[in-house]
TrEMBL record:
Key word DNA-binding present: yes
Domain HTH tetR-type: 10-70
Name under which the protein is recorded: Helix-turn-helix domain-containing protein
InterPro entries: DNA-bd_HTH_TetR-type_CS, Homeodomain-like_sf, HTH-type_TetR-like_transc_reg, HTH_TetR, Tet_transcr_reg_TetR-rel_C_sf
Regions recorded as binding DNA: 33-52
Length: 188
């Protein structure tokens, strides 16, 4: 039997993740049945689960990818920039609907909650590091603990995601993000 190259395995894994992301975004976690994931990826159950232990492992792999991508932007440009990107290019964030599923699963599934919290810690750590750098540079207010600011920004992010995922209007949200950004900066 010929050996499959690492490049081909990585490409197949990417196909699965891309198709599954679309499926989870469209149907939610529970609605993204294995049959629908097969249809969305164009691959068989065996091909999908050769790369991922089960549906939850596939979902967590997507969540981890999203957390890493957000952490990269948050580390370089700040969490508010992540939110601005969501407003500017919602089509690049088709996973937003799945964030609502994540919130539901966090409440009801202990093992999922443990795995998710480990993944989301990356974004929080990147945001905290960026805020600490901003504080050291004198750009960030120093009358509020940086961990409180991280939680504040995280709450704003959750609200934005909920609004976008539920299809609510976003016309005035750029001004809201300006206000959020101003609220964490030192007054000049």
């Amino acid at each position: 039997m010929p050996k499959v190259s690492d490049d081909r395995l990585a490409a197949r894994r990417r196909e699965i993740l891309d198709g599954a992301r679309h499926c989870f975004a469209e149907y939610g976690y529970d609605g993204a049945t294995v049959k629908r994931i097969e249809e969305s990826t164009g691959l068989s159950r065996g091909a999908i689960f050769h790369h991922f232990r089960d549906k939850e492992a596939l979902f967590l792999a997507l969540a981890h990818e999203d957390a890493e991508r957000m952490a990269d932007v948050a580390a370089e440009q700040g969490l508010v920039q992540v939110m601005r990107d969501m407003l500017a290019r919602p089509q690049d964030f088709d996973w937003l609907g799945t964030r609502l599923e994540i919130a539901r699963k966090l409440r009801t599934d202990t093992s999922f909650r443990t795995a998710w919290l480990a993944h989301s810690a990356d974004v929080e750590a990147a945001t905290l590091r960026r805020l600490e750098r901003g504080r050291q540079a004198g750009r960030l207010r120093d009358d509020v603990d940086t961990e409180v600011l991280v939680k504040y920004l995280d709450l704003v992010l959750d609200g934005l995601i909920t609004r976008l995922a539920s299809g609510q209007p976003t016309d005035d949200l750029h001004a809201v993000l300006d206000l959020v950004e101003e609220s964490v900066r030192v007054e000049r």
